[in-house]
Amino acid sequence: MASSKEKVDRRTALKAIGAGIAGVVVGLAGGYAWGSTAAPAKTTTVTSTVTAPGAVTATTTVTAPGKTVTTTVTAPGTTVTKTVTPTVAVPKLAKIPLLPPGVRNPWLYEKCAGAKVKMMVDSFAGRIIEWYADLLKEEIGVEIGTTKLVDIPMVRDEAMSLLDAKSTEYPLILVNPNYLPDFVLTGKVECLDPYFDMFYGVEDYFRELIPIYRFYMTYEGKYYAIPFDGDLHLWNYLEPFYTKEEFRTAYKEWHPKRMPLRAPPETWEEWLDQCKFFAEKVLPDDKTIPGAEVLWPTMIWAKPDWSWGFYMNFAASYGVNYWDKEMKIPLYPQDKAVEALEMLQKFVPYMPEGVDTFGSAETVEYWCGGKVISQIWWIDINEWGQVEPVKGLIRNGLMPGHYDPEIREVRHRAMTPYNRYWIIPNYLDDKTKLAAFYVAYHVSHWHYSLWSVADMDCGMDPYMWIHLSPAGAECYMKANPYKKPSKEWPHKGSLFPSYKDALLHLEGGRVNLKVAFPMPCIPGMPEYADALGREVQLVIGGKDPKQAISDAAAAWEDVRDKYMGILGKEKYLGIWKDFYNRMVEMGLFP
Question: What letter does residue 91 receive in the DSSP assignment?
Fold first, then answer.
């Protein structure tokens, strides 16, 4: 628990976070009147008459700056008079500044006052906008209602049912970006480009967004979603097993090439060697961590819902994409997809018995209980893991990779599965849509989100570069100054035992985000994921990887053909090519 001295003074925080808008305020004071009407312009008239004998008579009248041009042309037997009023270049409406938390926004208050905004999210997300209800009400007069919390497996169905019924109860609806195309195709999701364009400084907001999370906001080149959580896989480990001199010396003597024991390992092969060493020479009777019963070198999430994503950390590092560019060959190239799955299967002997049934509950329990040395998991496992017996002893690092002889380097890829984004139904009234966008945008902005992602009362993770900065690390060590007090969200202390722990945690996120790999955000994604996930689970249970990739590929072709039948072949192929080209732009493929 944080003492009153540890709490961040709100006035100081406002000064720091609001500093970025100082230039805006100065600019306004410099003479540009927001929302004002310009005074009538002074009118100047110039008349010029030119006459050529027996030919043309031309009279030109010019009025500036509201120009009126009158031209009279006389030819034998014909008189033509043409009056043209050119379009006046009206200055664009001034953009709206985003002011600090709790500061009334005079450009929006009257437009939004009285609007009611509630959100539907998964239960792990928490009641994030309720935390800030009083501040948001002061800013634009919006009323924040009670959040609807839904179990994670039901999020997609619940969100779709709200849209199908044209429900107006929840102006902010959680979607995961892998489902965004399916939602946009209902025709009931608001395009957000005009809303973003309304705000001064939105360019800075977009620059702060980590590219993979901005990638997830769009469909066919337009913005439809606002991020408030960024998910990412990392390689996680218990540090004492890598720093203990006894193990370091023994590993070097044990290893055929006298490799050092290092974390993170550079390649999958190196990590596999480490697992072999710990299984043969250290576990299961080691007492390096008091109170921990470390029994296995590693483990994996094997249930089909997300096992496909865990496998793709391997596959993407082998250069595998979901499809070839023309969408003819799934899991392309398939020989590399098989190699990657074979590599994953090699780790199974160093995992707990029954691992082929593991999902969220088991992997979290084993990790927080100190039962395994290393594993792949989302970035937040090391936030939850700050509990005994592993508190202060867990670290994360760059995902191991695959050495590709063609590029002559190790290719690292880190999956970014799940993620939380808000969409806004387009059938809501204009006032509610504007208020809902403002709430989502401001809570997504670093004004609030620096604190939200560092708060243990919700499941938010970094999605902006500033979240991963030293300033972001400081927020992990302090109480959220904007969170409305409540028994439902009581935590005020730090997430990590030290500032150094927080910095190391965020650095692990930063290095993996540089090699981030997206989910397949195309229509039918849930079916692709389920088909691949089932095969990965079967391989963990002993199925031949080559057969598994063959079976998964056949299932994917069926899903592709199904959606080509629904949307049209060219339309569906166009959606995939757009996704593919954006991956190329991110440098994931040549």
Answer: P
CA distance 410 to 318: 9
541-544 contact pairs (CB < 8 A, 24+): 541/302, 541/356
Q: How far is CA 470 from CA 64, 447, 466, in A?
A: 56, 16, 8
Q: DSSP labels for 173-204?
A: EEE-GGGHHHHHTTT-B---HHHHHTBTTHHH
Q: Using one digit for the tens of pLDDT, what is the confidence trace for 49-92?
A: 333 333 334 343 433 333 333 433 334 444 444 444 444 454 55
Cα separation of 52 and 440, whole Å? 68
Question: How far, in Å, are 205, 397, 463 from residue 511 at the CA level?
Answer: 21, 7, 13
Per-residue DSSP letter, 483: P
- Segment 292-315 shows an average pLDDT of 97
Burial of 363 (0-12, 13-18, 19+ CB in 10 A): buried
- Give the residue among 85, 99, 83 at the shortest CA–CA distance from 17: 99
Question: Over the stretch 9-41, which tens digit does the pLDDT of each residue have?
Answer: 323 333 333 333 332 222 222 222 222 223 333
Lowest mean pLDDT among 107-111, 459-463, 470-474, 488-492: 488-492
Nearest alpha-carbon partner for 404 in 333, 347, 329, 349: 333
Token duo for residue 281: 């020479």
* The predicted structure's pLDDT at residue 89: 54
Taking the C-alpha atoms of residue 77 and residue 55, their distance in angstroms, rounded to an integer, is: 11
DSSP category for residue 263: S
Q: Is 3 helix (H, G, I), strand (E, B) or coil?
A: coil
Q: How confident is the model at residue 43 (pLDDT cuts 50, 70, 90)?
A: very low
Q: Is the pLDDT of residue 267 over 90?
A: yes
What's the rounded Cα separation, in Å, for the pair 525 and 559?
9
Alpha helices by DSSP H, listed for 299-333, are 304-317
**Count of beta carbons in the 10 Å neighbourhood of residue 522:** 24
Using CA atoms, how far apart are residues 17 and 447, in angstroms rounded to an integer? 6
Q: How far apart are the first and last CA of the chain?
A: 50
H or E element, residue 576: helix 569-585
Amino acid at the residue 46: V
**Listed residue (403, 351, 396) closest to 376, CA to CA:** 396
> Which residue's structure tokens are 């899991």?
331
How far is residue 321's CA from residue 329's CA, in Å, rounded to a whole number? 10
Q: Say if residues 537 and 308 touch (Cβ distance below 8 Å).
A: no
